[in-house]
Amino acid sequence: MYIVTAEEMYKIDRETIQTMGLDGKILMENAGREASREIKKRITKEDKTVILIGGGNNGGDGFVIARVLEEAGYAIKVIQVAPDEKITGDAARHKKIYRQFGGQVADYNEGTADTVLSEADVIIDAMLGIGVRGGLRGDILTVTRQVNKQDAYVISIDIPTGLPAEEGFADFQAIEADATIMIGAVKQSAVCQQTSSYYGEWIVADIGFPEKLFQAHTKKRLWTTADFQEAFPKRGVNSHKGDHGKGLIIGGSEPMPGSVLMTTKAALRTGAGLLTTASVKNVISMIAGNNPEAMYIGASETDGCITGIDNIDLSGFDAIAVGVGLGRKEETAKGIFPALLKYKGPIVIDADGLFHLRAYAADFKLRQAPLILTPHPGELAALMDISVSDLLMEPFRHSSDFAKRLNCYLVLKGKHTIITDPDGNQTVESSGNPGLAKGGSGDVLTGMILATVMQSKSIFAGINNACFLHGKSADLLVQEEHSEQDLLAGDVIQGIPKAIRTFSS
After folding, report:
1. Which of 183, 334, 442, 460 is most exposed by smallest CB count within 10 Å?
2. Which amino acid positions bind AMP, per UniProt (predicted)?
3. Annotated binding residue at 413?
4. pTM over 0.85
């Protein structure tokens, strides 16, 4: 499932019509019919439904929806918010068809519309599509404000009126939808923190755009259950522990022993074949009894923090995770990072490791082996020397720029986690719930990424699979036995087996 900006969607639409020969009126008919199918799942024939129609393709979709719903026996009122001269091309053709079917179109009048909207059970917003530039004006602005005051269930077509389709916009007024039926692809603003709430529940309607055009015009997509199932490794009957990765976790300090325990547990639950955790002696004594399946190595230490790993032969490991519970002492970084720079396998860096990375970033860029960074927005903003608000305004652009600049895989954690590879390909993993907004959740994800990277043919697929399982584990737990308030990071580890069973086949 692809994610697009307005410009990318326009290119795909234009080439579908001009190059592939699929008529625009057919695409509009497909869009209206597919949207109607989803609308019927959410409304009843007894509902008083008002369809607000503007100019352009979005309005044309609205006329098709009105015709399909009326023919199916739904109670529909259509209000045309745009003047007649704005209803042109394919939209004008479908308006004519709607009227030939007996449909009635009322022109917008502020007073009358206010009464009709206040009596509506359902409002379908087909006023403006993805081409919005600048603030709303005139009747569209007035209607948007009227709609947002109502208690009706609001369904937007393709995008809530007034909302930009892509990241980078802060000054706008838009419909606050309860559901949005996107046409053809996910709009980028649906998976950005600043704008996602305007969409409500969202669904994507497939109306016949060719797959190859999406592949040609966007590097962004959702990581879906189908993607997970295709990429999740299947174990051979005669496989052994060495086939599933020999991993090393470096982390933990006396003030923070639990973090490295959770990373270790999560890596093993996610299928790591052999796992060793390097930490200070007191941490090892505290956690080893709770996780006997792992092996342990005592690192050099001072005052309960790691200060060296010279006693560890890093070459014997398939991948390394570093940073959880590490602490921020300068001696810690000096004792670990120079050795990591010589290591020739994948490295996952999280938490305090990201704090120390700033001094070594230029050196890590020169490594040929994969580097995987897993920051939350505050950590990435610090690495990029920008504000968190600037980062969240354009998370896709900043993530792509940073991943290319540092030649790394980047996991920008959040409700819509953005995973970027060194070439700028991006996926979004949107499962999970607010129960994950607790200490330790990131430590669990680090262990899961370590395990999946060692087991997958593709580093990028392995990272995506770990993020998918992390979110799905939390979702299943909240659905069945926990609340978002009481869910703990340790619970997410215990939920991994069910998430794998549920989604891997």
Report:
1. 334
2. 413-417, 442
3. yes
4. yes
